[in-house]
Amino acid sequence: MKSNRLPEYELLNRDVFVGIGLLALAVLALAQLGLFDLERLVRGAGNLIVFFRETLPPDQDVLPIALIALAETLVMAFAGSLLGFFLAVPLGLLGARTLAPAPLVYVVRLLLGAIRTVPSLLWAVMFVVVVGLGALAGTLALAVYTLGYLAKLYAEYFEGVDPEVLEAVRGVGARRWHIARFVVWPETANAVLSQLLFVLEYSIRASTILGFVGAGGIGFYLNVYVNTLAYPRVATILLLILGLVLIMDVVSSRVRQRYLLTVP
Amino acid sequence: MTRQLATCLAEGIWFAYQPGRWILKDIHLRIPPDGFLTILGPSGSGKTTLVKILAGLLKPQKGTVELLGRSMSNGQSADPEFRRQVGYIPQQLGLVRGMSVLENVLMGALGRIAGPLPLCGWFPKSEIAQAREYLAFLGIEHKAREPVFCLSGGERQRVAIARTLLQNPKIVFADEFVSDLDLPRAAQVLTAMCELSKRERIPFIINLHEIPLVQELSSEVIVLKNGNIVHHGEARQITKTLVQQVLA
């Protein structure tokens, strides 16, 4: 005969409760910031409609100059990301506990932490002071930001290489540079390149803002038009940025599918 | 060409991963200059730890290990020049999955190739020819250009053997590296190793579970139980009953 009693359960994993706790904290914070103030939201929605009415249609007269600035933004993003990438790979190797001596790892990690503490916009301000207004300051700011972000991630990836593979190749008498080239690189190349693509996408978005502080690119014009309340021109620039970001998404997705082989 | 006398001597080895919990207890072992020594024992008996200590990859808390005439207690085991004389095949083989079979085998030559050219992808033709010869001997030369992750388990094992042989070692340690294979395929791989051991006069020390293979291929066998050597003798004398008796 079937028993109607429910089977007894035992709680083995508390992840769901941690998630619910975090969600409750987020709701509390948002309430504190006024997100659930309905009157304020309704008034804001009205302002939004006025804003859109004044912004549309976009002003096409600004297109030639905006396209040139957009190209400059693209160049800044590529140059900055690639420069940062080429510096991040060796620093990532020096920051991996399994590959470099402990004191060196400590110094490199401290340096990377310091770099990451400063946001890219502040780096742009610093480089404007150092090299003057223009795209070079933006490019250097993106390079430093990319370096701080990628080198930290790469150090983690490099540390995650299967220790048995490291042991086996060390066992043949291979040197550190052999280990880096023949074990660490092939084992992590997919993740490393995947993050480079992510940073390229980020840099394009970030470089649109760097112009606000005079670091070149389309952000300079965006800042000028926002400050002069030329909203139709702002709309044109935002649409161009949106187009560029979408194109980058597609290109990056194709590159991932075509070149980043999945190793089981 | 004569090889330097290859041997390994362990005296009074004690080892623990956590204080007081000894994995190996007072191990004394002398590995002969040639032949095929098998280490038998149930899971957790300390086989892998013993192989790693004998190969100079782990330092015991007590006791001494002498490998190829050098003491392993003064840091010489980390010297690349010395390491390349000691072949070691780990349980999971330690192959680089994203590289081809040939590139993986050529890793074995890294210890003796000077200069930056290998870092850019150039290897000496003589080393490539030698790598291909070992792959041909092991029956997988036709897979030389394939990525290693496309191979079957048995083929990967052969790649690991070829890499170790290209190292030109004076002694080879292997840690249960055929445990994932069915018996006929494990026999095939081990027979190839045994032939190489005889042809190249390299002593092999290997962890194994399969008693029929031990009887057929090994020259000497030790049985480990709870970190102690409970039997040491000729492999042809070993039987399932004897193993059960000494492990009981």
The SS-based structural class of chain B is alpha/beta
Q: SSE string of chain B, helix = H, strand = E? A: EEEHEEHEHHHEHEHEEH
Portion of residues in helices of chain B? 25-40%
Q: What is the N-to-C order of secondary-structure elements of chain A (H for helix, E for strand)?
A: HHHHHHHHHH
Distance linking N and C termini of chain B: 46 Å
Mean pLDDT of chain B: 83
Q: What is the general shape of chain B?
A: globular
Number of helices of chain B: 8
Please tell me the overall pLDDT of chain A.
87
Low-confidence stretches of chain A: none
Second-tier CATH architecture of chain A = Orthogonal Bundle
Query: What characterizes the major β-sheet of chain A?
Result: none
The fraction of residues in strands of chain A falls at under 5%
In short:
Chain A is mostly helical and 264 residues long. Helix content of chain A is 77%, strand content 0%. Chain B has a domain at 95-168.
Topology record:
The complex is a heterodimer of chains A (264) and B (248).
Chain A: H1 15-33, H2 38-55, H3 63-94, H4 102-117, H5 120-131, H6 135-159, H7 163-170, H8 176-210, H9 218-227, H10 231-259
Chain B: E1 8-18, E2 21-31, E3 36-40, H1 47-54, E4 62-67, E5 70-71, H2 80-83, E6 86-89, H3 101-106, H4 125-137, H5 153-166, E7 171-174, H6 183-200, E8 204-207, H7 211-217, E9 220-225, E10 228-234, H8 240-247
Walkthrough of the structure:
The complex is a heterodimer of chains A (264) and B (248). Chain A is mostly helical and 264 residues long. Chain A has one domain: Orthogonal Bundle (MetI-like fold). In chain A, 77% of the residues lie in helices and 0% in strands. Chain A has helices at 15-33, 38-55, 63-94, 102-117, 120-131, 135-159, 163-170, 176-210, 218-227, 231-259. The longest helix of chain A is centred in the C-terminal third of the chain and has 35 residues, at 176-210. The relative contact order of chain A is 0.13. The model of chain A has no long low-confidence stretch (mean pLDDT 87). Chain B has a domain at 95-168. Chain B is 31% helix and 24% strand. In chain B, the strands form two sheets. Chain B has a six-stranded mixed β-sheet with strand order 6-7-8-3-9-10, sandwiched between helices. In chain B, strands 2-1-4-5 form a four-stranded antiparallel β-sheet, covered by helices on one side. In chain B, α4 (125-137) packs across α5 (153-166) and α5 (153-166) packs parallel to α6 (183-200). Chain B starts with 7 loop residues before the first strand and ends with a helix. The mean pLDDT of chain B is 83. At the A-B interface, α7 and α8 of A face α2, β6 and α5 of B.
